[in-house]
Design brief:
This protein has ten helices and 20 strands. By secondary structure, the protein is of the alpha/beta class. α4 packs parallel to α5.
């Protein structure tokens, strides 16, 4: 850990400049606001949205207009507490809740701030000016985003807190899962974490589906009972799962989810499909009276996730498959884009 008084004037960061243009470059360190702590980032997980900004210059309808620091799945240590006295003290290990809920013109339930229309997220181009992320050695972060980590929870494992919270929220949207048959379509990092959370919740039988062998192996390591290749549509349709979680983010995956659900079952859609019309046989959802439920980010589930990772009741270590030094960040992004070979890929900012 570095004392704040000896912090450099700049630090290396992962910056997306546009489609296909990702750079590891020096950015100037600014003085924190009174309600911000300086966090020395230890680990950052590469998310699908980070990959989209690099590969496509956009994530969904959020398009890069200016260079933007990526990254929202980060953990680290406070090296300078906020000047206003809020938040954790120097030396405290922390995870980060990257959302800033904000109202807008559209209505939403007050107890679900993740749906607030003005919500911003670290490393997001949804608004302009963009909201820079925290893929840099020293990040100024509002103390309301910081969650103190138990000392027994290693920072490397804690790097899963943010994506595991997304998975936890999706499982909560599924309702009661204990004793039920669950189908998870798409076993990338979020899908694998959904398997882990469902296993902890006591599902009777978990079937995992993916196009590739490696993600299925990870799903098995965290609790899946049955593994199916995505091409085996007959076997998927025969599952008749009480609950299905679609986490592939493709219309093919959503079609499999609908076909694999029992009549009267529930399908939770956590994989973010591209904007625009999707070619899905929605008539089956109607005639089978399926409940199609959306799941977007998370709220205060992050606190439960931290406790579950710390006490070992949520076993997710196999999801972490690769780690790279920040200086090798471009190689890390290449690996993260290879869903056949990787799970969650981490950047190590301390090496």
């Amino acid at each position: 850990m570095t004392e704040y008084s000896v912090l450099p004037a700049s630090a290396l960061a992962v910056v997306a400049h546009g489609k296909g243009d990702l750079r590891i470059e020096d950015v100037a360190l600014t003085q924190p606001r009174s309600d911000e702590a300086v966090v020395e980032i230890a680990y950052g997980g590469i998310c699908g949205s980070d990959l989209h900004y690099w590969l496509h210059g956009a994530a969904g309808e959020s398009t890069l207009k200016d260079p933007m620091v990526l990254g929202h799945e980060v953990v680290g240590t406070v090296v300078r507490a906020a000047a206003d006295g809020t938040g954790p003290a120097d030396g405290t290990p922390v995870a980060v809740h990257p959302a800033t809920p904000a109202p807008g013109t559209a209505r939403y339930p007050e107890d679900r701030p993740n749906l607030s229309p003005g919500c911003t997220y670290l490393g997001s181009a949804a608004r302009h000016p963009h909201t820079d992320g925290a893929f840099l050695r020293y990040a100024n972060l509002p103390t309301r985003m910081l969650r103190t980590l138990p000392r027994m929870l290693p920072l490397r494992r804690a790097a899963l807190v943010e994506p595991a919270s997304v998975a936890w929220h999706a499982v909560a949207r599924a309702g009661h899962v204990r004793g039920k048959s669950v189908l998870v379509v798409g076993c990338g990092p979020i899908g694998a974490l959904v398997v882990a959370v469902i296993k902890r919740a006591g599902a009777a039988r978990i079937t995992a589906v993916d196009m590739h062998r490696r993600p299925l192996e990870i799903a098995a390591a965290v609790g899946a009972d049955v593994l199916l290749e995505a091409s085996d549509t007959t076997a998927i349709a025969a599952i008749e799962a009480d609950i299905v979680v679609e986490s592939s983010g493709s219309h093919y995956g959503l079609a499999s989810a609908i076909n694999g659900a029992v009549r009267g079952g529930r399908v939770v859609m956590v994989g973010l499909l591209p904007s625009g019309p999707q070619p899905v046989a929605i008539s089956l959802a109607i005639t089978r009276e399926l409940e199609l439920v959306g799941s977007f980010r998370f709220n205060d589930e992050i606190d439960e996730v931290i406790d579950a990772l710390a006490d070992g009741s949520l076993y997710a270590d196999p999801v972490l498959t690769h780690e790279y030094a920040l200086s090798d960040g471009l190689e890390a992004f290449d690996m993260a884009s290879n869903s056949a070979a990787s799970g969650k890929v981490l950047l190590n900012f301390l090496t």
